[in-house]
Each structure stands twice: as C-alpha cells, then as structure tokens.
Amino acid sequence: MAALPALARDLLAAAAIIGRRTTLHLLRTVGVQVGWSLAKIATGLEAIRQAGLLVEEAENDAYHFAHDVIREVVEAHLGMARRTFWHLEVAQALEQVGGKVPVERLVYHYTRSAEPIKALPYLEQAANRAFAIHANIAAERAYRELVERLDDLGRPLDAAAAREQWGIVLSALTWYEQALTTFEQACNVYREDGDSEAQTRCLVHIGQVHADRGTAQQGIQRLTPLLTLGETHGITPRTLALLHDIYAQLLHIAGQYHKQLEEAERAVAYARAAGDELLQCQIEMRRGNALRMLGRMREASQVLEDVIHTAESVGELTILPYALENVSVVYLLQGEFARAARYIERALALAEQLGDPLIHGLLVLR
C-alpha cells in the first residue's frame, strides 16, 4: 500500500469503504466526484491491480479484493475523518449510478458519513420495504433505529410518526407490551401538539393491541373516555370509522354483542362517508360476527360472503383470511363441516403466505 501513488491509495480506500466487491462504474463515479480525471482513475486502478490488491473481473466490469484481510487493513488504516469522508462520497455516488436505489447500502454509508441525517429517508424506505414483504424482524430493527435517530435529532413529531409504524410492526410480531408503550409515547406527543386526528389514530392502534392480546376490558376502558366525550373536531370520517370499528371488536371479545352491533353500524356509516370501500369491507366483517353471536346466522353468512367477494375482487389479502375464518365458524355452527373445512384451509394458506402469527394460530386451532 505504501508503495502505491497517492491517488491509487485513495482509490483503494474508496474501494474498501464500498465493500469486498465494487463495479468499475461506481469507482469511476466516486473518483470523478472528488475531481479526478478518468485517465488518472484508470492509471490508479492499474497500479492497484498490478500490486495484487484488487483482482479484475473483466467480464463484469468489476473488481474485488484479493483477500478480505486486505480490505480490512485498508479500512483500518483510515482515520476517522477520511473514513467519514469516503462514506459520504460513496453514498452520493450510489445515488447517481442509476437503476434500483440500493436503500440498505445508502443507509449504511450515510449513517457512517459526516451527514448522517441523509440516512433517515433511506432508513424509512428500508423499514417500509421490509414490512411490505413481511420481513418483520428486519422492519422492527429499522424502525427502532429510525426512532432513535429522530429522538437524537430532537424531532419529536417525526419520531412519533416513526413510532406509530414501529408499533404496528411490534404488534405484528406479537410483542404487545412494547407495542403499547410505543403507541402511548406517540399518542402523548400528538396530544401535546394538539393533533386530534393523529392522537385518535394512535388510540385505534392501542385498541387493536388490546384486542389482539385478549385484554378487551383494558381496551374498552382506554377508548371509552374519547367516545363518551363525542368530540370529533379535527378527526376525519375514516379515523372515526376505525375508532368505532376497533371499539366494536373489543365489545365482541368482551361478549357485549348488542353493543358491538350498534358500534359496527356507526363505523359502517363513517366508512361510507369516507368513501373507503376496503374499510367498509373490514367493518362489515365485524358486523357479521355480531350477527353470528346473536344467532342471526343467515344474515351473518350473507354479510361475510359479501366481504369475501369484495376482498377477493380487489386483492385485499389482509382482510381475506379473517373473513374466511369468520364465515367458516358460521358454517361450522350449522353443521356444514366440509364447507367450513374448505374455508379454513384457504384461510390457512393465506395466513402462511402473509406470515401473520395471530391468524395462523387461530386457524390451526380451528
């Protein structure tokens, strides 16, 4: 390394920061960013290659380190200032190279650069992407890191929004206590900011956690004050629909089926006012459950079959396994065992695809 020209040593440092392997295009982009000509970059790379430190992959227009130890030594040789400098240059070059944005790599490099704040949007993208493909452990880790960074930067509202998403992932992992704490923290920030819409949204999440873990009475106690006050100023019809829907779900778990039906009907009215067909579909599922528990089986099966049809027609896979499970119980209670089994098997296949442990466990039980 010491025998190399200064520019070649810098190129080698950039390559080490990039990783074990790098494309020629990325190295050139980094070099041009710092003011080197293409001719000097080519000369520097040739010197590195002849020294046996980087191995050329001519067919791929790429280079890789001859041994991992070489890369480790090069990176360890850099001082803090140079290391953060190269992380920033590599991150900016990655943004320029085109094609699919390498979100995780951008998070890695910006986090270690002199401008770590630039990692935040990519960290959020990485978290959202992981959650979208049901990689919940990776999503939880990314949202947690995002929250910590926003807290450190003194951005409470942004941190509260990130906490909401983090809480949703924690709930999906059935880490309920941590999810409740996370949602309550976000709720407190929204209340202090006077944001009724966001505060109510968080209360809906809190109610859902109580429903999922079976602590319905606690959930009812938490939501009743807001519903008793009846203050809806600044709250959209969609969020009001969600609030009454989760309250209906808690009443169902608590065995208060007449009240559940009343709340579900209120929720349907708000969802209709919001023009949200999917939400209306979800709430109708709760209404079907209330009808079932009140012994109105024919009405219940019709409502739930309509929900299944709507969910299938729009490809809504989140609602569908629950709707299939719910209507299977109606048929089970009426002695239609073969039909019930078909619905349960369909729902179980969907639950396995979605990676939802709650519905999966329920369907195995069925």
Total helices: the number is 19
Poorly predicted ranges (pLDDT <50, ≥5 residues)? Answer: none
Q: How many distinct beta strands?
A: 3
Overall geometry comes to: elongated
Average of the residue pLDDT scores: 91
Helix content: over 70%
Order of helices and strands: HEHHEEHHHHHHHHHHHHHHHH
| Structural class label | mainly alpha
The first-to-last residue Cα distance is 66 Å
Radius of gyration: 27 Å
Name the descriptors:
three-stranded antiparallel β-sheet; 19 helices; 366 residues; 3% strand; mainly alpha
Question: What can be said about this structure in brief?
Answer:
The protein is mainly α. The chain contains 19 helices and three strands.
Write the layout of secondary structure elements.
Blueprint (H helix, E strand, L loop, with lengths): L5 H13 L2 E3 H10 L4 H13 L3 E4 L4 E4 L2 H10 L2 H17 L6 H9 L7 H14 L3 H17 L3 H17 L3 H18 L2 H18 L2 H14 L7 H17 L3 H18 L2 H17 L3 H18 L5 H14 L3 H18 L2 H9 L1
Antiparallel strand pairs: 1-3, 2-3
